[in-house]
Amino acid sequence: MEEKKTVMGRENCRGKGGKAGFKVAILGAAGGIGQSLSLLMKMNPLVSLLHLYDVVNAPGVTADVSHMDTGAVVKGFLGAKQLEDALKGMDLVIIPAGVPRKPGMTREMTSLKSMLGLLRHYVKGNPVNSTVAIAAEVFKKAGTYDPKKLLGVTTLDVARANTFVAEVLGLDPREVDVLVVGGHAGVTILPLLSQVKPPSSFTPSEIEYLTNRIQNGGTEVVEAKAGAGSATLSMAYAAAKFADACLRGLRGDANVIECSFVASHVVTELPFFATKVRLGRIGAEEEYQLGPLNEYERVGLEKAKEELAGSIQKGVDFIRK
Ligand code: LMR
């Protein structure tokens, strides 16, 4: 209890109404995901100060969001010269900046060329499978890398899995909990349907259908938007949900468990892997083993690991070479 007070006292600030809370920065706040995410974080009662940064349109989004009568104070930051001020003293930094996919493109095609500039700008995106490794390398170079504090957001895969599984089971998605591990692209997204809560059994064709739909959820949206971008609303929802969990962890709440793509030591031999982690005051404090897998999932895990290894290495080489 005493420690909690100290942490809150050191980290917190006072928003409107004098309520203690956390300071959160969004980098890429004027983008397709960033705008909705800014709205959702302004509505989060745990946030007392919200820094909205972007290379364009940050003042407009800031003015707009600042008229919402919620507690968080909002400040806007525009362009590289203001990036440092946007980051100073923040408890949590969320980076939704990216380049949307067009139909027919894989996540990798969008990222590694067009995202380099953005990532170098912000961490001196998508796909998480490579960008977390890129961010780690950038932080290592700067001597500031803390593996517990760099978390790739895979919450949208879990949200999609809960939604699609609930549809098949005829349940409310809020009653369903699907563990999704691996990464955030195609076959690296591995839903462990044998561990669904509440305990449920699926026919082989349901397993095939659900696995494919969960793995291709992003593509489903890209194709439906027909060239106008990729998922922004559900991605902002997922990022806001994950950010809220991070803040509850920072506050010292017990048992805040979420899936995230993190530096991994015990789950597989890969340096990064999405698995269940316990979020606490110092970030991802504990990672959990995958639990018992059936044959279908074991085969899926091997495929996921093979692709992930390449994507992670691409990220590392991107900075090192
Ligand atoms: C998603 O899962 O919707 C995002 O990663 C965007 C994309 O390109 O699929």
Walk me through this protein's architecture:
It catalyses: (S)-malate + NAD(+) = oxaloacetate + NADH + H(+). It holds the Pfam family Ldh_1_N. The protein is α/β, with parallel strands linked by helices. The chain contains twelve helices and eleven strands. Strands 1, 2, 3, 4 and 5 form a five-stranded mixed β-sheet that branches. The chain has a four-stranded antiparallel β-sheet with strand order 6-9-10-11. Helix 8 runs antiparallel to helix 9. The longest helix is centred in the C-terminal third of the chain and has 26 residues, at 295-320. Residues 1-13 have low confidence and may be disordered. (2S)-2-hydroxybutanedioic acid is lined by residues 101, 107, 126, 156, 217-218, 221-222, 230-231, 235.
Which descriptors would you attach to this protein?
single chain, 321 residues, alpha/beta, five-stranded mixed beta sheet, four-stranded antiparallel beta sheet, 45% helix, 17% strand, disordered N terminus, binds (2S)-2-hydroxybutanedioic acid
Short description:
The chain crosses the membrane at residues 20-41. The protein contains twelve helices and eleven strands.
Distance between the termini: 47 Å
Order of helices and strands: HEEHEHEHEHHHEHEEHHHEEEH
The tally of strands reads 11
Instruction: Bin the strand percentage.
Output: 15-25%
Helix proportion = 40-55%
What is the SS-derived class? alpha/beta
Specify the overall morphology.
Answer: globular
Count the helices. How many?
12
* Spans of at least 5 consecutive residues with low confidence: 1-13
Ligands, ions, cofactors: (2S)-2-hydroxybutanedioic acid
Largest sheet: 5 strands, mixed
* Rg over alpha carbons: 19 Å
- Whole-number average pLDDT? 91
